[in-house]
């Protein structure tokens, strides 16, 4: 079918318009696509930044969580330590209370011990006066020292009591030991050098240096009794044993049988 020139012109015009419209639409689509891509890039960049912030916050959170756990462990340890310290403190307070009570009791005991020691010294003095008179100076000095000690304030009560008990122990030991010492004694009307021999408290004898006079202490009469010369050998042997010049051996010596 043949178109008129006017129709052809209309068709051409329509086609041109469509081409322009299509081109405009394509341009618009391209522009819109560029905007979408740009927005997508912005979103990606924002998301990346957000992820970095999230990662940073997560790291910070993990660090804080670790610090929190560490602090919690320290708190648990401190609580255990505090409980232990409180238990020790309670025990120390209880000990302090006991010490305070003991100090009160010590003060009471101390007030009672001093009179007791005085009575013990008086009793010991009476015992020595009634005992066999060996080592008179030594024993008298010991008693005098105890009496003087009781008047001193620079010696603790415990030390005083120890020394009193020590004096008692010395007197006890005299009853189970053998001993010899030299001294002066009036014999046959004149003062002579003699050797004293003590065997426990059952025999207390003397012998002059020349061996001519022997004697036994008689506790009942409180005096020396002459001994016959037959005891000289045994007494000399006993003197040597007491001086540790002979080994211990069986000896025959006179005994004081007084009660």
Structure explained in plain terms:
The protein is α+β, with helices and mostly antiparallel strands and 259 residues long. The model has no long low-confidence stretch (mean pLDDT 85). It has a 5-stranded antiparallel beta sheet, covered by helices on one side. The longest helix has 126 residues, at 5-130. The radius of gyration is 60 Å and the shape is rod-shaped. The protein has 2 domains: 46-174, no CATH class; 178-242, no CATH class. It has helices spanning 5-130, 136-150, 157-174, 232-242, and strands at 178-187, 190-199, 203-208, 214-218, 223-226. α1 (5-130) packs across α3 and α2 packs antiparallel against α3. 66% of the residues lie in helices and 14% in strands. Residues 1-26 form the signal peptide. This is DUF3450 domain-containing protein. InterPro entries: UCP028069 (IPR016866). Keywords: Signal. Pfam families: DUF3450.
Percent in strands: 5-15%
Structural class assignment: alpha+beta
Largest sheet: 5 strands, antiparallel
Helical proportion, percent range: 55-70%
* Overall number of strands: 5
Strand order of the largest sheet: 1-2-3-4-5
- State the shape: rod-shaped
Overall domain count: 2
Gyration radius (Cα, Å) is 60 Å
Overall pLDDT level: 85
Quaternary structure state of the chains depicted: single chain
Along the chain, the helix and strand elements come as: HHHEEEEEH
């Amino acid at each position: 079918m043949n178109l008129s020139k006017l129709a052809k012109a209309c068709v051409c015009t329509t086609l041109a318009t469509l081409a322009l419209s299509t081109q405009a639409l394509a341009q618009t689509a391209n522009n819109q696509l560029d905007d979408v891509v740009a927005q997508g890039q912005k979103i990606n960049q924002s998301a990346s930044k957000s992820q970095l912030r999230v990662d940073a916050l997560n790291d910070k959170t993990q660090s804080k969580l670790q610090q929190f756990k560490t602090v919690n462990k320290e708190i648990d340890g401190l609580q255990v330590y505090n409980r232990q310290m409180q238990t020790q403190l309670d025990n120390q307070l209880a000990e302090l209370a006991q010490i305070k009570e003991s100090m009160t009791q010590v003060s009471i005991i101390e007030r009672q011990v001093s009179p007791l020691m005085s009575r013990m010294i008086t009793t010991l003095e009476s015992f020595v006066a009634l005992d066999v008179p060996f080592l008179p100076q030594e024993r008298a000095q010991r008693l005098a020292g105890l009496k003087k000690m009781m008047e001193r304030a620079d010696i603790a009560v415990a030390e005083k009591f120890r020394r009193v008990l020590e004096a008692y122990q010395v007197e006890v030991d005299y009853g189970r030991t053998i001993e010899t010492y030299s001294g002066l004694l009036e014999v046959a009307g004149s003062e002579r050098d003699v050797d004293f021999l003590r065997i426990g408290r059952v025999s207390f004898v003397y012998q002059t240096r020349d061996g001519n006079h022997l004697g036994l202490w008689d506790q009942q009469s409180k005096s020396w009794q002459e001994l016959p010369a037959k005891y000289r050998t045994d007494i000399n042997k006993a003197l040597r044993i007491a001086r540790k010049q002979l080994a211990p051996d069986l000896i025959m010596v006179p005994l004081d049988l007084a009660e």
